[in-house]
Amino acid sequence: MSEIRFKLxxxxxxxxxxxxxxxxxxxxxxxxxxxIKPTEWNYYKSFMPFEQLPVLLVDDTVQIAQATTIGRFLAxxxxxxxxxxxxxxxxxxxxxxxRECGDFATQIIQEIDSNxxxxxxxxxxxxxxxxxxxxxxxxxxxxxxxCIVGNQLTWADLALxxxxxxxxxxxxxxxQNYPLVKRHNEYIxxxxxxxxxxxxxxxxxxxxxx
Length: 210
Ligand SMILES: N[C@@H](CCC(=O)N[C@@H](CS)C(=O)NCC(=O)O)C(=O)O
Hints:
The chain is of the alpha+beta class. It is built from 9 helices and 4 strands; from the N terminus they run E-H-E-H-E-E-H-H-H-H-H-H-H. The mean pLDDT is about 95.
C-alpha cells in the first residue's frame, strides 16, 4: 500500500467516480472518500479545477480532475497499465470506447423529448452497444488470455466490468451474444476485492431514468 494521501471528492451518488473507487478497492489502497451533498456543491464548486467532480487530491497539494485522467494516474502509479507502451495504449483504447458508449447513454438519459429519446435508444441498442461489445469480444479472442490486454490485470479489465454493471439485469441477456466478454466479466467479478466492492455499493437501479 502506498503512503501517498489520497482524497477523492465526488457527489454522494454512484457515477463517474466508480472506476476510481473500484481501483482503490482492488489495490487495497486507503483513501478519503469525501462525499459532497447537493446543498454543499455550490460552496465547493469554485475550488475544483473545472468546477466539476470527481477530483482527486494527492498529498493535500495536487488536484487532479477528469475521471479518466484520475484513473490513468492511478493505473500508472500502481502498475495497472500493462507491461509496455502498446499495452498501455490498448488499455486507453478500451477506456475511450467505454467512455464514448457511456456518454451516449448519458445523452439518452438527459433527452427530454420522448421521440428523440426513442431514436437514440434504438441507435444505442442496435449500433453502439453491439459495436462496443463486439469490439471487446474481438479483443479478448485475439488476446487469448483471461484479461482484455496482455496477460495481467489492467485498469481496462476493471473498467469493462464496471461499465457492464451499469447494464445490470439487461447485461445477463445481452452477454449471451458475447461469450468471451461474459466469461471475462465472471472472472473479474470473482476477484474477492472486486466482488466485495460491488456488493457494498448502492444498487444501480436507483439511478435508472431511461
Ligand atoms: N468529463 C468530466 C465530467 C465530470 C462531470 O460531468 N461531473 C458531474 C458529476 S458526474 C458534475 O460535476 N456535475 C456538477 C456540475 O457540473 O455542477 C469527467 O469525466 O470527470
